[in-house]
Amino acid sequence: MQARIENPASLLPETMKAINVLYQQAHSAGVEPATLELVHLRASQINGCAPCVDSGARSARQSGETEERLFAIAVWRETPYFTEAERAALALAEAATRLADRPDPVPDDVWAAAAAHFDDKQLAAIVLWIATTNFFNRVNVATAQPAPQNWG
């Protein structure tokens, strides 16, 4: 696969400042890094973003994530590998990523489950991380960015 254009963030480098601020803020609110990794990976799977699925899985693995959990992300509801807090974050990620799939995109029960495990600042960080992931996914998919071929 060949990209339609170079990555837009490379072509417009000032955008990286904003992206870095979003990244730093989402990762500074006290949410377990593994939870944010899982949220990023699941949203990227839903959106079919090859570079984000690839880099997300690699990053999670480098952070100590297990293979069985990585392999089971797409079917997290049917496995015993995830905590209740992670399940709540994954449900929120799926709902906030699939906004057009139902009339009530983020139902109260999904939000309430997440709110039972995360405080307002952490919820804000998770929502911002979901939005940031969806931003990356849309940029990469629209411009046909491929997954890296050589990781060395």
From TrEMBL:
It comes from the Bacteria. Gene3D superfamilies: AhpD-like. Residues 13-95 form the Carboxymuconolactone decarboxylase-like domain. One of its GO terms (molecular function) is peroxiredoxin activity. This is Alkyl hydroperoxide reductase AhpD. It comes from Paractinoplanes ferrugineus. The lineage of its organism: Bacteria, Bacillati, Actinomycetota, Actinomycetes, Micromonosporales.
